[in-house]
Specification:
Blueprint: H1 4-16, E1 33-36, E2 39-43, H2 56-69, H3 77-81, H4 84-97, E3 101-105, H5 108-119, E4 125-129, H6 134-143, E5 146-150, H7 155-164, E6 171-176, H8 188-197, E7 201-205, H9 220-223, E8 232-236, E9 246-250, H10 252-261, H11 263-267, H12 273-288, H13 291-310, E10 321-327, H14 329-341, E11 344-345, E12 348-349, E13 359-364, H15 371-387
Parallel strand pairs: 2-11, 4-5, 4-6, 6-7, 7-8
Antiparallel strand pairs: 1-2, 3-9, 8-9, 10-13, 12-13
Length: 391
């Protein structure tokens, strides 16, 4: 008989170390403010960068898609699950990302599992930034290729490791575009140059870049003016787009190949009409205006500046992601709890999501926050920080 008490002991150990995640249940739609356990709180931890998760335009498009296509696709894409709606969204998404073609996948996590194993295998090498997201790590492991980690953002280390590992059928360089815990940006322009120099494929996961970086939020590839030069562009619909789902964008040969080989595409049902309808609306919103992207950056710059003035360490973020570095997991957990009592929902993040000794409150600013919202948050951070003798 399985000894469940062993798992109970592990759970208790997580609680003692401040690493146990207390899951909050929302009782209202995503927005600047939420209702949780009957309490109105300011939302500072959603990935809903542009406020599109409850946007009327996306809701209308989603409802219309359900009315026309029903609630489910009924099959995997390769049998009877490809709707003309999927192909319309893929075409517009490819145009938005500056790519020849695109493929929709059920989630951003699945997108990495869809693209890495078909492209590289046991005869190949993967060069992965040491702080890449778990979905990239899992996709690399599933491929069976040898994984060589290079120092975070260190292109000199990347090139040195490419030089010392020249022999493989294929070599793939893979990196996050924006790193979700620290908010720093990959030097994609330099990475592409190195990839070209050493005949290595370059893949970027733009999950936290689309809707944030580049003209109209087109992402990190557009930010560095690299359209057509990045071999594989992967991302998610669950952050700035406000929906759920993932994509792979690239040249037409890549996408045609993946539609024959990618296991999440072949063996899991297609994204639902409701999701795809909302994705289409999100792409069209961003194509038509950069107003939300500009507001996001204005809010983020204001909040970071004021937090630094209060004496908080907000790391080296280059994006609206704002890590409030507290380092100690127990202190971070207590800080989050006290913030919630003060009406601010901002979760503590510790190991294994971040390295040991790097615990923090990760603040996620949104375009739908008002200046009054941000002042409310700053006052509460100040109050709790002083109470815990941190500032």
């Amino acid at each position: 008989m399985f000894e469940w008490n062993i798992l109970k002991d592990e759970l208790e150990d997580l609680k003692k170390k401040g690493l146990y995640t207390h899951i909050r249940t929302l009782e209202s739609p995503q927005g600047a403010w939420l209702k949780i356990s009957g309490k109105k709180v300011l939302n500072l931890c959603s990935n809903n960068y542009l406020g599109l998760a409850n946007d009327e335009r996306l809701k209308k498009s989603s409802v219309e898609a359900v009315e026309k296509w029903g609630v489910g696709p009924g099959a995997v894409r390769t049998i009877a699950g490809t709707l003309s709606l999927h192909e319309e969204a893929e075409k517009e998404l490819a145009h938005f990302k500056g790519a020849e073609s695109a493929m929709l996948i059920q989630s951003g996590f699945n997108a990495n599992q869809a693209v890495i194993p078909p492209i590289v295998g046991k005869e190949d090498l993967i060069f992965s930034d040491e702080l890449n997201h778990a979905s990239i790590i899992d996709g690399c492991r599933l491929s069976g290729a040898k994984i060589i980690r290079w120092n975070h953002l260190d292109v000199k280390d990347l090139e040195e490791k490419l030089k010392t590992h020249p022999n493989a059928r294929r070599r793939l360089i893979v990196t996050d575009g924006v790193f979700s815990m620290d908010g720093d940006v990959a030097p994609l322009d330099d990475i592409v140059k190195i990839g070209e120099k050493h005949n290595a494929l370059v893949m970027v996961d733009d999950a936290h870049g689309e809707g944030v970086l580049g003209p109209n939020g087109r992402g990190i590839v557009a930010h560095f003016d690299l359209e057509g030069k990045v071999d594989i562009d992967v991302g998610t619909m669950s952050k700035a787009f406000g929906v759920v789902g993932g994509y792979v964008a690239g040249n037409s040969t890549l996408i045609e190949y993946l539609k024959q080989k990618a296991r999440p595409f072949l063996f899991s049902s297609a994204p639902t009409p409701a999701d795809v309808g909302a994705v289409l609306a999100a792409v069209r919103v961003l194509q038509s205006s950069d107003e939300l992207v500009k507001k996001l950056w204005s809010n983020a710059n204001y909040f970071k500046k004021e937090m630094q003035s209060l004496g908080f360490d907000v790391g080296h973020s280059q994006t609206p992601i704002t890590p409030v570095m507290l380092y100690d997991a127990k202190i971070s957990s207590e800080f989050s709890r006290k913030l919630f009592e003060e009406g601010v929902f901002a979760q503590s993040i510790g190991y294994p999501t971040v390295q040991k000794g790097k615990a923090r409150i990760r603040v996620m600013i949104s375009a739908v926050h008002t200046e009054e919202d941000l002042k409310f948050a700053l006052e509460r951070f100040k109050r709790v920080g002083k109470e815990l003798n941190l500032i």
